[in-house]
Amino acid sequence: MKRIGVLALQGAVREHVQMLEFLDCEVVLVKQHNDLQQLDGLVLPGGESTTMRKLLNRYELLEPIRTLAKTGLPMFGTCAGLILLANEVVDDEPHLAIMNVAVARNSYGRQVDSFEVDLNIPKIGKSIPAVFIRAPHIVSVGEGVEILAEHEGKIVLAQDGHLLGCSFHPELTKDTRILKYFLSSIV
């Protein structure tokens, strides 16, 4: 059984936990650095990236998560989680700065502009539902980063080795294929 941490400071925590438990994972709610012990992977959920950054600082989680990333711990960031992972954030300071991508926040408009679309992702499957809520997009990728999906010419899913980041919220659907893809990267 894989032991997966979910950063539980703010955001779509419950939805990730439910999906991971459905996929037979042991889930650890990560609220302090001790919760990062003996994880097989870490999920950084969607939410509000600025608030999450403040809480990462308050609970002294930035450096421990950066250290785990350097050791190769698989991490999956959705929406705000992608912003946390990115090396560069347009018009803002990066947060964890561990994934070799540049991200623009709120690329798809405000909350009222939220939408769902089906994406075809060759490595994962066809007609995968993607929920975009005040979503960022990946502006550019660095060397070695694989673009997995685009929507309307914008990069919305990419992989940098053991780091996977997406603009949308797969946890808000019943489709588990993207999370299964992340879990399959864990040896």
Give me some keywords for this one.
single chain; 187 residues; alpha/beta; 7-stranded mixed β-sheet; 5 helices; globular
Architecture overview:
Helices cover 23% and strands 35% of the residues. With 187 residues, it is an alpha/beta fold. It has five helices and twelve strands. The chain has helices spanning 13-22, 49-58, 62-70, 80-85, 177-184; strands spanning 3-7, 26-30, 41-44, 75-78, 86-89, 99-104, 115-121, 125-132, 137-141, 146-151, 154-160, 163-166.
Structural class: alpha/beta
Pattern of helices and strands:
EHEEHHEHEEEEEEEEH
Strand content: 25-35%
Helix content: 10-25%
Q: How many strands, what sense, and barrel or not for the largest sheet?
A: 7 strands, mixed
Our count of helices gives: 5
Q: What value does the Rg take, in angstroms? A: 15 Å
Distance between the termini: 11 Å
What is the gist of this entry?
The chain is α/β, with parallel strands linked by helices and 187 residues long. 23% of the residues lie in helices and 35% in strands.
